# Entry
Amino acid sequence: MTMTRPPANAPAGPPAWEPGDPGQDPFRRASFRVAGIPVTLTPGAYLLGVLAAGFSALTLPVLDPGRSVTAYLAAAAGLVIVLLGSMVAHELAHSIVARRYGLSVPVTVGLFGGLRHGRDLPGPAAEPERPGPHAQWRIAAAGPLTSLLLALASAAAAVTLSALGAGPLAGAVAATAVWINGLLAVANLVPGAGLDGGRIVRALAWARSGDSTRAGLIAARFGQVSGAILTGAGVTALALGHLSGLWFGLMGLMMVAASRGEATQVRTSAALAGIQVRDILPPDGGLAPTARGWQTVQDFLELQSLDSDGPGQLAHLGTTAYPVRDFDGQLCGLVTLTQLLAVPGSQRAGTRLSQVATPAAALTFTTLDEPVTDLRARLARGPEQNRPATPASLHTALHTAGHALVLGPSGELAGLLTPADFARAAQFGTLRPTTAGADPGPR
# Structure
């Protein structure tokens, strides 16, 4: 059946926005723009600002007692601006350099810093037309270099303020800028998964070997070693009675786990390189029995059962996800077996499928010709343009994470891919004579 409304989050080739064109910006929730680049501060970033303001309210009067309330408020505002501004500047540096290589990377800052550039910049399994390793290390290095320059500029400002006889409040703001930017520069240069240092190692290894898959594995090993060293340092600090060692130990363990996950991701991407969606789609498209949004959960289960005492046809088909259509035959959502099972037995007769299904706006769509590596990258990000608006819908969408609805040439529903399909494709991909995708070569 043909869909009359094409999904807004179907795959698209070129970037969805161009600098200076707010009408085409998919991230319309941007807080502001810098040089045409949308900058979004998430609730986590605002929470960080509130925490910084609260900490300032407690410490500034002790640091410089006897000042006016206005002076303390101005200093606290300066500290918040320095904190958030330093993180935004770090991420903007990545985006500005990335734009020189034809990439459009919006800036998103959260509670723990940048949230986007690590996922949007090209990786080892990038397409041949994407920037090569030389561009990648420049993009990755731009952030720490900018933070380092800001730290030096802040140090110079602190010295100048001291020479001019400025009070402790102004000195505290300048010293905070030195400390924050120095921390951003040094911490991000650690060769761990998801950090700029890890991306630099990956790019340099790629440029040296010409093998992007091998480069990704080398970077992952560097991350595991760095995490192990950090964990050991944390344990040693705890043994010596320093509670700060607990923080370093936890960070090290997280780095080791993230690096192992990155290695798995690299191997999977290499196994799926060159494979399109049509190549992994089941013969029947993976489509389950039709589900109607107005059906109750109980009616749907009974209609699909061969007998009244068991799951019947549903279990026989081995299906775990079911497209849901409305009265007009339009696709309105997707419901999974876990969502059906989550409805208590006493409520199934009064609960409609449309109430428990994930709405179409929160689903990911693909086409038969899309490379599987691109689709998996989009699934990892989620349907950015149609993010669930409420906590309830977000919880519902978690059940269909990793699923993708496949559209045919005319926009008709041609199939459904589940996490099991991707896992099976990756397993068979490792059996090919060569699993590494074609590298663009050092540039």
Remarks:
- The mean pLDDT is 80.
- The chain has 16 helices and eleven strands.
- The CA atoms of residues 4 and 231 lie 55 Å apart.
- The chain has three domains: 31-189, 210-272, 279-429.
